Amino acid sequence: MKPMDAPLPPAGARLAQVVARRDGAAAPQADALAEELPVALVFNGITHAVMLATPMDLADFALGFGLTEGLLDHAGELYGVDEVRVADGIELRLDVAAACEWRLKERRRTLAGRTGCGLCGTDSLAQVRQVLPMLPAVAFDPAAFGRAQRDLRQWQVLQHSTGATHAAAWCATDGTVRVVREDVGRHNALDKLVGALQRGPQAVPAQERAQGFLCITSRASFEMVQKTARAGVAALAAVSAPTALAVDTARGCGLLLAGFVRGDDLVAYSFSERLGLPALGPTTPDL
């Protein structure tokens, strides 16, 4: 097939020659594909996880993963990250404090992460539910959640080109989108965002971070809620539904959780009064 002229793809994508059939006619064209590579996270020489991820913003990913997995207690425990290309993918070699290495050895596991997978390789039920901080009660205008979801589309450069990635954003109280990260995996996008919020030019102080909210282009799974809480952010606004375990977890740690945030509509699953909505009734007891 003769290569077709096409603009260069954004970071995290590459071009492929395809044949598209539309309205009954077929024609060759260039198409942008989101990259997805195995990324190994190696803490002081110990391989802890191998995730399939988009190879961009990987220093943010390393820090965010360490924080949201509870391996790093704070950003200062990560001294440096080396990104090394190897035959089968990328190694992120993290130089971490002794305390982090001790936590890793205490909770040693191997993850084989897939794009839609959150807890692959966890070797005990006790590791699933972590002790989470109690988050502050922050009030929001419901319109701020809708504004964030609408504006987030303009920031999704990789998604516009490929149609294959998720995004996670930190937004100010009024819904202004401030920091965004993209990845083929929703968990990875959130980890990259958490890392970006605590390093580099887009870092946001903890007190300010807690007063904003996270906006995601996916469902709100249990792990997305847990990662948000570990990031110290008071609310999570998802475009799709949460799971039952995600709702229970949000209610337990003080996280305002909203799903189906589309236009001016949303569903509040916890602490609805913080959105100026009627308070929720008692929860259904566990069976």
Q: Which bin fits the share of residues in helices?
A: 25-40%
Report the order of strands and helices: EEEEHEEHEHHEEHHEHEHEE
- CATH homology-level superfamily of the largest domain: Cytidine Deaminase, domain 2
Q: How do the strands line up in the largest sheet?
A: 9-8-10-11-12-13
What's the CATH C level of the largest domain?
Answer: Alpha Beta
How large is the radius of gyration? 20 Å
What percent of residues are in strands?
Answer: 25-35%
Model regions low in confidence, pLDDT < 50 over at least 5 residues: 110-114
**Alpha-beta classification:** alpha/beta
Overall tally of domains: 2
Please report the number of helical segments.
8
User: Between the first and last Cα atoms, what is the distance in angstroms?
Assistant: 59 Å
- Do you know the CATH topology of the largest domain? Cytidine Deaminase, domain 2
Q: What is the level-2 CATH architecture name of the largest domain?
A: 3-Layer(aba) Sandwich
Number of strands: 13
| Whole-number mean pLDDT | 90
Profile the largest sheet: 6 strands, mixed
| Shape call | globular
| Oligomeric state of shown chains | single chain
Pfam family, one: FdhD-NarQ
Family: Belongs to the FdhD family.
Main location: cytoplasm
Function: Required for formate dehydrogenase (FDH) activity. Acts as a sulfur carrier protein that transfers sulfur from IscS to the molybdenum cofactor prior to its insertion into FDH.
The gist of it:
The chain is of the alpha/beta class and about 290 residues long. It has 8 helices and 13 strands. Residues about 110-115 have low confidence and may be disordered.
